[in-house]
Design goal:
Layout: H1 3-6, E1 11-13, E2 19-22, E3 25-29, E4 37-43, H2 45-52, H3 54-67, E5 75-78, E6 82-85, E7 88-91, H4 102-110
Parallel strand pairs: 1-7
Antiparallel strand pairs: 1-2, 3-4, 4-5, 6-7
Length: about 120
């Protein structure tokens, strides 16, 4: 598997097929006696910013700490919890239990829910 081509930026779906984010980063474990292994995938704005530049990552981390709704950011999903679903990856979790949709939930409650007729 070519990790950059086949994993980064791919859609993550929950058990029922609801989108819960995209793969923003890959965390690998390195052992001196074995080949490197993928341990987790990361989802979140901090990881996205780190991919652009280290300073952008530090800036995004400060913003996420102060105003972020997703805790933790970045959110890690165990590699063993993923399965391939066509071009996407399915996560053995429910969308309601993962923090990746925290901003959507906050916007629905505090903004969209207050619009008359919404």
């Amino acid at each position: 598997m070519d990790l950059v081509r086949d994993l980064l930026d791919k859609q993550l779906l929950d058990r029922r097929g609801k989108p819960i984010g995209r793969v923003d980063g890959i965390v690998m474990t390195v052992d001196a006696s074995a080949q490197p292994r993928v341990a987790y995938v990361e989802v979140g704005s901090v990881t996205q910013a780190r991919r652009c530049h280290a300073q952008a990552g530090r800036w995004a981390e400060r913003l996420a700490r102060r105003w972020g709704k997703m805790r933790p950011n970045p959110y890690r999903i165990a590699w063993s919890a993923l399965s391939r679903d066509g071009r996407d990856f399915r996560v053995d979790a429910d969308a309601a239990t993962v923090p990746t949709l925290a901003w959507e939930r906050w916007l629905r409650e505090h903004v969209i829910g207050r619009i008359p007729g919404a």
